[in-house]
Design a protein that fits this description.
Blueprint (H helix, E strand, L loop, with lengths): L9 H13 L5 H6 L2 E5 L11 H22 L3 E8 L8 H19 L4 E6 L15 H12 L5 E9 L1 H5 L2 H5 L6 E5 L12 H4 L3 E5 L10 H18 L10 H13 L4 E4 L13 E5 L4 E5 L1
Parallel strand pairs: 1-2, 1-5, 2-4, 3-4, 5-6, 7-9
Antiparallel strand pairs: 6-8, 8-9
Length: 297
């Protein structure tokens, strides 16, 4: 990972300005300041030839880089799925656990260089450790949370030993957390119930489907910036369209024509000199009120 703070990388910022122009983002700085992404990682075991804990370290580095970019662009918060309670029943849980343990010092180092604060959300009174380990993570995670508690900037919430059933019993905890406006889901076009967040902070979110897995090895910095821009685009076009939305006659006619009669679908390639080694083509899909928008980058 590059050791520079994103805020100092004028080439990254210039690239994002180009991306924002292609995506027709409006009031970009304000839009980013209100952007709260739920990054649902997936595809660590199938996106590369890496195996064991190494694949999960790579997935954690993808999130670390995404956090660095979001912090530099002035975003408000991010949620990340890490360990759902049922993950502990998987035969490769040892690999997941060891990968997370190896990532802790990397996230600690990142916090020393950019404005970010970490919070770990889940049943922290239960042990995370698999049977065969001498690594005990909770103390390290609590220390990392304590060290960054009063930091300004991006808030990063990691769901660890988490389930929706548990979350429903914590209304006071979730009442104080920022509401999500975009869910980014990798590899699978589904949102498992166990990793959903309570309705109070997720009901008004839109969905971005990223076809490729969350593997750091496969994503360039430019592609990560594209993904953030596409998430911001999803938030922009879907803002205010749920529950209490009212439509003027002109809006109803326009939506009906584009969605029902024309079967609207938009396709756009975001192509520019990438910042870093080639990571393979990426595809992300959002849904506007008119229909799907497909982006390749």
């Amino acid at each position: 990972m590059n050791d520079e703070n994103l805020a100092l990388r004028s080439d990254w910022r210039a690239s994002f300005e180009w991306i924002a122009e292609q995506l027709r983002l409006k009031r970009t700085r304000d839009l980013l300041s209100r952007l709260v992404i739920y990054e649902m990682t997936d595809g660590m075991r199938t996106s590369t030839a890496m195996t064991g804990a190494e694949a999960y370290v790579d997935g954690g580095l993808f999130v670390l880089r995404l956090i660095q970019h979001l912090a530099g662009l002035g975003s408000r918060a991010i949620y990340v799925n890490v360990i759902e309670q049922r993950h502990r029943q998987r035969e490769n849980y040892q690999d997941i656990y060891q990968g997370l343990a190896r990532l802790v010092p990397m996230y600690d180092d990142l916090a020393s260089r950019i404005p970010v604060r970490y919070r770990f959300v889940g049943q922290i009174d239960e042990t995370l450790a698999p049977v065969r380990t001498d690594i005990h993570l909770w103390d390290d995670l609590r220390e990392l949370q304590s060290k960054t508690r009063d930091r300004e900037g991006l808030a990063a919430y990691f769901l660890i030993n988490y389930s929706l059933d548990w979350a429903y019993g914590q209304p006071r905890l979730f009442a104080g957390l920022p509401a999500i406006n975009v869910i980014v889901r990798h590899a699978k076009l589904q949102v498992p119930t166990g990793m959903q967040l309570p309705p109070a902070i997720s009901d008004l979110s839109s969905l971005v489907y990223a076809q490729q897995g969350s593997s750091s090895k496969n994503w360039t910095d430019f592609q990560l910036l594209c993904l953030i821009g596409i998430a911001a685009r999803s938030a922009q076009v879907n803002e205010g369209t749920q529950y209490l939305k009212t439509y003027s006659r002109e809006e109803r006619d326009s939506i009906r024509t584009l969605r029902e009669e024309d079967a609207f679908m938009k396709s756009l390639k975001l192509v520019r000199n990438t910042l870093g080694p080639a990571g393979g083509r990426k595809r992300a899909i959002i849904a506007s009120p008119f229909g799907p928008e497909v982006y390749e980058f």
